[in-house]
Amino acid sequence: MVETVQGAGVVVTGAGGGIGAALARRFAAGGARVVVNDLDADRAKAVADEIGGIAVAGDASLIVTEARDALGGTVDVYCANAGVGSGGSEAADESVWALAWDVNVMAHVRAAHTLLPDWLERGGGRFVSTVSAAGLLTMIGAAPYSVTKHGAYAFAEWLSLTYRHRGVKVHAICPQGVRTDMLQATGSAGDLVLQPTAIEPEAVADALMKGIEEDRFLILPHPEVAGYYQARAADPDRWMMNMNHLQQKWETTE
């Protein structure tokens, strides 16, 4: 187990199930004091009771101060995990776009804004952003999700390059399909693209712990994503043509 986890004060948002619950369990197993956050108070309490943590229900954008108080005034690790998997195209209602932007990007910005003064003063802190492979690549049938996950990745990257020399560690987790409620909600696009290689949430937690141990920014629970990312950068037109072929294949299943 990673030594930096021992005794750390950890906050995990969106931890009532899926990846967030797996992260909370793994940190608690390593000896961390864990705040379990979720919009659903009952789900947050169930996970917190299971791991001996502290449940703090509510909007992930608004609970940072309460969670810090629950940990005795110090957050060592903040996992910005809560997210929404908004599907749709450019024609999606503006409320869908606004929610995706607020949860997938601005919640991270607000948390960092609250946490950074203390972290910079004491020269240490760890920000974990659950992004998605969609933040490095893209996802067919899900414009709001893809665009805002690109934003989440960009913000994590900016945090790292801006504050790493001042002791702030940042990790961006970018899995493809993970067997969660969110994956089930992706419908036929998820069935085509994500389900064949989907992994369990516990595998994402394993990848994070290994990434923390190795002090890596980019954490890829699906290692093949590195090759896709390199191909996208090396020849964007060919990559987009291949993705368009996937789009056309999906359209024939609709």
Stretches with pLDDT under 50, minimum 5 residues: none
CATH architecture descriptor name: 3-Layer(aba) Sandwich
- Helix content bin: 40-55%
Percentage of residues in DSSP E strands: 5-15%
InterPro entries: NAD(P)-bd_dom_sf, Sc_DH/Rdtase_CS, SDR_fam
Family: Belongs to the short-chain dehydrogenases/reductases (SDR) family.
Pfam family, one: adh_short
Keywords: Oxidoreductase
Description of the molecule:
It holds the Pfam family adh_short. Belongs to the short-chain dehydrogenases/reductases (SDR) family. Keywords: Oxidoreductase. It is a single chain. With 254 residues, this protein is an alpha/beta fold. It has one domain: NAD(P)-binding Rossmann-like Domain (Rossmann fold, 3-Layer(aba) Sandwich), CATH 3.40.50. It is built from ten helices and seven strands. The protein has helices spanning 18-29, 41-51, 64-70, 94-122, 143-163, 181-184, 187-193, 201-213, 225-234, 236-253; strands at 9-12, 33-38, 54-57, 77-80, 125-130, 168-173, 218-219. The chain has a seven-stranded parallel sheet, sandwiched between helices. The longest helix is centred in the middle third of the chain and has 29 residues, at 94-122.
